[in-house]
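Cross-posted from the bioinformatics board.
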Amino acid sequence: MAAVLRCPACPGSEFRMAAADLVCTCCERRYRPRHGVLDLAGTGNAAGDRPYEGFWATVYGWVMDRPGRQRLDAWLLGLDVRRYYREVIARLEGCGAGPHLELPCGNLPFLELTEAYRAGGPWIFADLSSAMLGKLARKLDADGADGQVLLRADACSLPVRDGRLRTIVSLFGLHCFHDKAAVFAELRRCLHPEGKLVLSTLTADGSALSRGYHRLNQLDGTFAPAATAAEIVASARRHGFEIEDEFRQGSVFLCTASPRAPEHGKENTA
Ligand SMILES: C[S@@+](CC[C@H](N)C(=O)[O-])C[C@H]1O[C@@H](n2cnc3c(N)ncnc32)[C@H](O)[C@@H]1O
Ligand SMILES: [Zn+2]
């Protein structure tokens, strides 16, 4: 993984290994995993994102640990949860050889539902929440899978070298990110020119009930102001992604996208 990651303080940097440490070749700072998690979050998130710690980490972990409990989603989001699971699993199983990044990984709800994380890889699982990463470290330990890296990282400023990732899986994260433009720019930067982005998010397109759920979660900053699927597609395109296929239902948008070669003279904005 030393060839994929970079120091959060030094954008042009590389890592070299020294015993169990990753050492930045630019500032010489040493990074070592603690309790299975490598912390490359740097100075943290400036956009106002609120990683799931404390109460939210417990509640979210409890709900997402059992697919049956997500029937709540069918009611709240107007979603056929089984169909959503089938769509995501098919995409995970199409990932092939890595390196792959799942961000935000939360408690990795698909771990028990597919062999994709054990057959392919290597996988990096990243989130800004120490609590979610701690839960996932214990879950992966129990699962016995190896060759995976758990990373504390900010979606707005990924500690990944340019063009290194074959797949980025970003499930139900975008609606939590306040600076979507910064996140799309980072996803595009880190993805290999032939890589794929698998993205799902909640949108502002659902029923009054799901819009209310969204607003409730915006009160403390857990969710960012809602965007429609059309706005998300437009933002992805502005940042150099081509949508290959998509699934929209209720307030859920899921798609596979690939990087588009930049058009000469055009800049990515907004
Ligand atoms: C709705 S959960 C989704 C988790 C998982 N992908 C899933 O589908 O269950 C959103 C996650 O985003 C994380 N998060 C919030 N802001 C973040 C940021 N700026 N960078 C990385 N992760 C972030 C939270 O800690 C939380 O685990
Ligand atoms: Zn450095």
